[in-house]
Amino acid sequence: MNHAKDTPARFTPVPTPGTRPFWEGTQAGELRIQVCGHCRALVLYPRPHCPECGAQSLSWVRASGRGRLHSYVVSHVASPWSGGDTPYVIAVVELEEGPRMMSNLVGVPPLPERLQLDMPLEVVFEPRGEVALPLFKPASPRTP
Ligand SMILES: [Zn+2]
């Protein structure tokens, strides 16, 4: 990996009242998503209303942290997300529970031949400032 001398400052999310439970979860090593108390839809990203039925009865649950690689792009442009490291993988991860989220992949070379769609992934948390970023790495085998 290259690491530019004039590294862009790493992006650090700032929790808002609506996203604070999510970021408190990542700090605690949990990936949290919302569930609708009316229609049971699972929701990510954080929002005040259910996107399926409009109810305001969303609460937080812990997701397994496992998912699959739905889509990705290998970026060769340093960004605040990568902190200057290139190339890096921007991925859309489909969580086991259904919702999809964007993240970065770690623990795997950013090479198309190593990145197979539907490959199993699991979340890891990278401390950054007052939050921890949910990143994904190739999943280790499930323990029975
Ligand atoms: Zn709903």
UniProtKB/TrEMBL annotation:
| Superkingdom classification of source | Bacteria
Q: Please give one Pfam family short name.
A: zf-ChsH2
List each copy of the ChsH2 C-terminal OB-fold domain by range.
60-126
The record ties this protein, via SUPFAM superfamilies, to:
Nucleic acid-binding proteins
Q: Where is this region: Disordered?
A: 1-20
Ranges for domain ChsH2 rubredoxin-like zinc ribbon come to 23-58
What protein does this entry describe? DNA-binding protein
What is the protein's species of origin?
Caballeronia novacaledonica
Upper lineage ranks? Bacteria, Pseudomonadati, Pseudomonadota, Betaproteobacteria, Burkholderiales
